[in-house]
Amino acid sequence: MKRIHDTIFILHKCDLSIRLVWEAIEKHKQTGPLFSRFHFTQNLTHYIILESLSFFEEYNGYFIAKKVEDEYKEQVVTVRNICKPIVKQINKWTGLQNFRDNFIAHPWRNKGKLVIPLNASYDIPITWIEFQFLKDLIHYIHEIIKCEFSDEMNAGIWMADNLNENVEPKYSMNDINIKVKSILEQVDKITNDHQRDYDVKFFEYS
Which DSSP string corresponds to 1-18? Predict the structure, then answer.
């Protein structure tokens, strides 16, 4: 694969992931507060932020003239110039990176202190329509790239899909059940040594 194929595939992957997550949000979003800790769609909005930042790490780090083959440099410069108004709008959410660092990629801490998303000052999407706006802005960039690099995008997707990694699972179900039994026995012994009586159930898989 050429470098142009690599970067376009990664940008495509991020855009596709965001759109798939948004489909799940549309199907399951709660009717209460957007950042309710008691509904899993909060985590889905976090994943949109995560993939959006991954998109821009790739866009700014590798979808640039000095990182692609000479034959594509002029096209990349042109596409990036066309996308400037879209990128400028996304960058108006100035808290995306810090929110990811403090809430998504790490525990809910800022400089060692506990912080709660609603109580912290982060300039990020906070309504469903804002998240849809972010999702759509990323997709506009993707579609512009696709128009300019249609053949390269198709080739990159095909090449990535056909990579044979030969990945085998580390544990079978039987292996896992054996390990669960062993772990339970060890935990029970240590718990008894500390004279504790915890009602924690371990599961057998089937």
Answer: --HHHHHHHHHHHHHHHH
